[in-house]
Amino acid sequence: MTSNETRTATAQTDVSANNNQYKITKSDLIKSSLNTGALGMEFSWTYYKQMNLAFCLMVAGMLKKIYHGRPDDYAAALRRHAAFFNITVQFAPFVGGIAMAMEERVARGEIEPDSVNDVKAALMGPLSGIGDAIFLTTIRVVAAAVGISLCQAGNAAGPIVFLLIYNIPAFWLRVWGVQKGYSMGVGFLEKASENGLMQKVIAAIGIVGAMVIGGMTKDMFWATIPVQIGQAVEGQDPTTIQTVLDSIMPGIVGMSAFWIYYRLLAKKINPMWLILGTMVLGVIGAYFGFLA
Question: Which residues form a coiled coil (predicted)?
């Protein structure tokens, strides 16, 4: 082999080694699913953008690898992921894995950066509906029932059993989910983008997400309008505006409030002003009796 051929082969080897050095590995994915950001999704929760800071912390190490030697692109990626994010915490690594697979394609100029947040937003609603039903409504209740029964029997292992029943599937999903999300992002999303399936998937997920949000809006709104209409009849509950509205459509007050907030947010009203306004309206309404 000539000296030129030797130098070329050496250069190619160095480039390959350098690329492998900045390639996201299985270890990177697992570490991200168990780091401070992933485990602290609700510790830095804010009413403004909810889990966005924790999500950035969860994926920051992988973003540094993807955009090594490109500090401006790394900063832009962090700003991109600082958008609103909220999900059942055990599913956050799964979404992070998909997002990192997409970021690799963004770094190569294959897809638009905005598509990453589009996919994240489309996944939040449906996965939260599934995750809350599995972990909050089912596993947590079962774990609490077993733990409490052991405690009532005088068994000191009750709290430990409760934590094990709840956390073993939770941590398994974190570790498995981030790897599955990354592999799906590399394979499934690539094919879906080529044949137009991605748009259909996002549309379908969006429909399911709207249904979940609609149900949550009704169940998580805790205000009524107790203003009495007419004279109370002996032996019967007085007729109020709330009972009339419930007879028309249960949850109409919550849906109306949701629509008002949606319109105000569409007009770029700062969410902090909406939060403060809601607090003031609640205090005034409770004081004068037209809200309860």
Answer: none
Give every CB contact of residue 61 below 8 A, 6+ residues apart in sequence.
Answer: 28, 31, 32, 35
Per-residue pLDDT of the chain (292 residues; tens, 9 = 90+): 455 454 444 434 443 444 567 788 899 999 999 999 889 888 878 877 888 899 999 999 999 999 998 999 999 999 999 988 989 899 999 999 999 998 998 888 888 888 888 888 878 877 887 888 888 888 888 899 899 989 988 888 889 999 999 999 999 999 999 998 898 875 655 566 566 665 666 666 667 667 766 776 777 777 888 888 877 666 677 788 888 888 888 888 888 888 888 888 888 888 888 889 989 998 998 888 888 8
What is the residue type of 189? L
**Would you kindly state where each structural domain of the chain is located, as residue ranges?**
24-209, 221-286
Quote the DSSP letter at residue 228: B
Q: Phi-psi category of 84—alpha, beta or left, where left has phi over 0 and alpha has psi -120 to 50?
A: beta
Contact 251, 221 (CB under 8 A): yes
- By the 8 A CB rule, do 143 and 167 touch? no
Q: Give CA separation, 145 vs 84, 88, 121, 130, in Å.
A: 35, 22, 35, 21
The model's pTM: 0.64
